[in-house]
Amino acid sequence: MRCYLRIMVIILSCLAGFFAAAADQTAAGPTKTIPVLTISGAIGPAVGDYVIREIQLANQQPHMPAILLTIDTPGGLNSALREINQHILASDIPVICLVYPRGARAASAGTYILYACHIAAMSPATTLGAATPVRMGGMPGGDEKKDDNAQKTPDAMEKKILNDSIAYIRSLAQLRGRNVEWAEKAVREAATLSSEEALELNVIDELAATPEALVQAIDGRVIQLNQQPYTLDLSGAVQLPRQPDWRSRFLATITNPNIAYILMMIGIYGLLLEFYSPGLGISGVIGTISLLIALYAFHLLPVNYAGMGLILLAVALLVAESLVPSFGILGGGGVVAMILGSVFLIDSDLPELQISLNLIYAIALASAGMVIFVVRRLLSLRRKPAVSGCESMIGYQTIIDDDDDEAGQGFVLIGGERWAARCEHETPLHKGDHVTVCAVEGLTVLVRKVSESKQNDGFTDR
């Protein structure tokens, strides 16, 4: 009992200390926190999901005076960029953007995000710009007119994309009171700036080496938030790094073009294997799950449907090769269609959003190996003698079981069945003659006598 009481006293003392500490913290007032988000690498669906979810969560939490976003990106998808900027513009909490660390860049889509944020800052030795839409140089079609300097005239679609991007970044620059002329130049001419030049030209608001230095530099500054003056109160705020959750990490994994491509191949070949050899369904289940995940990933990625069509054609040709003995013609066409479709599958000029050529070659070699295996298997099966039907009796060696002296014919036993036999040279057959079946005509087999030198003692089989 005394031991029990001592334990209870210890537990109650710990609880009292915990509640006392909580009471002191409440009396001292809530702690201001600044969530720190990080964009590193290409801006895709996973990055967009991560940034949007964190902005929404921050707007639902009290005592958050600002959101800090650090950027180091070569660019990304226009769809992900627009969604991020929409939530930044609609945020009730100021979003502070910093190109960080030293040597980082806010190229292409990163320039648009920097212009959209309430405070734009850069670390020393960083750059921004080159905001021309990446499809301007790689869009197929159009009437290209070349002059002596090999310059091309953009077609109507390219002009639409360019003018839309210019209008978009100009609207962001006007909203935040930044350099509109240079914003248009960054899109039209792919212009770039260093951090010092950007500050001098009023492209950014502050130059800071670290996030902590930036927070101290802008504390007390008045900005426009939802068209109303807003004073930044960042003194004593604690910076809280926010890492992507499991959902964002999962999206980042499956939206990697290489992973999505591998999942699609697993799904296709898994279903084919299940159709060829139905069994426990393991390959069918794995193939179905992989294919559905791949389709969801491709829904988020810029997919070229011509490339997808070529891949489906390749699968159809590979299946046909295993069903129709084309001796490699269909299979070879399938391998070529597989390579071309894989190259054209992702419609983006960013290396981070393209499928690795080494992976494409590996899948193509595996498919070619399957075609070679199927062709060799078909050729070996064609060389084997038939094992059922009338064709299986060709070459069968047996003995005349009975004869018909008047007609010169006889009877043989083949596989337990009694067949009428007739010599192919119209030679009379006699009981006990060793013969080989040459052909089958209705219910009569044509046989050929075997010379004594070639007879096998006691044989009745092949």
TrEMBL record:
TM annotation in the entry: 250-272, 279-297, 303-320, 327-346, 358-375
PANTHER family membership: INNER MEMBRANE PROTEIN YBBJ, NODULATION COMPETITIVENESS PROTEIN NFED
Keywords annotated in UniProt: Membrane, Signal, Transmembrane, Transmembrane helix
Pfam families linked: NfeD (PF01957), NfeD1b_N (PF25145), NfeD_membrane (PF24961)
Topological type in the membrane: Multi-pass membrane protein
Protein name: NfeD-like C-terminal domain-containing protein
Signal peptide: 1-22
Residue span(s) of domain NfeD1b N-terminal: 37-217
NfeD-like C-terminal domain span: 391-449
Domain NfeD integral membrane: 258-376
Superkingdom of origin organism: Bacteria
UniProt-annotated location(s): Membrane
SUPFAM superfamilies the record matches: ClpP/crotonase (SSF52096), NfeD domain-like (SSF141322)
Organism field: Vibrio quintilis
Cellular component, GO annotation: membrane
